[in-house]
Amino acid sequence: MNELIKLESPYKIVEKYVSEEDKKYFELDDILVNIALSLINYRIKNNLTQKELAQKLGMTQAMVSKLESGEYNPTVKMLYEISKALGLEFKVELREKTEPMEQWIECSESFIDVGSSNRVGDAA
């Protein structure tokens, strides 16, 4: 018998089971990923290597790598200087929050077949 179980969005799971303190880390990671994606997209669009981007920004290739990986949490001043060097708009927005983690995009619904006979460890 095949029984389907609907998996929740990972963000709903975080909202439901993760402490308020730990949610802050998820939100910060989301911000750092957005910064990383902006730099990576700029670099790809302009056909630049990390080294070339670093030269344009007046920093090391290692720092560009850390920014693109989300490993480094840049200051507002650093982000402002990066935006000016790249001709990008820089905007910091503080606003009242209406829903916890509202800015996170919901993942598409997923299903898992728990009744299948082809489980890990079963013979084919």
UniProtKB/TrEMBL annotation:
What CDD domains does UniProt report for this protein, alphabetically? HTH_XRE
The record's InterPro entries line, in alphabetical order, gives: Cro/C1-type_HTH, Lambda_DNA-bd_dom_sf, TransReg_Diox_bact_type
Check the record and name the Gene3D superfamilies matching this protein. Answer: lambda repressor-like DNA-binding domains
Keyword terms of this UniProt record: DNA-binding
The record ties this protein, via PROSITE patterns, to:
HTH_CROC1
Keyword DNA-binding present in the record's keywords: the answer is yes
GO cellular component term, pick one: cytosol
A molecular function annotated in GO for this UniProt entry is: DNA-binding transcription factor activity
Q: Does the keyword DNA-binding apply?
A: yes
**Which ranges carry the HTH cro/C1-type domain?**
39-94
- In Swiss-Prot or TrEMBL terms, this protein is called Helix-turn-helix domain protein
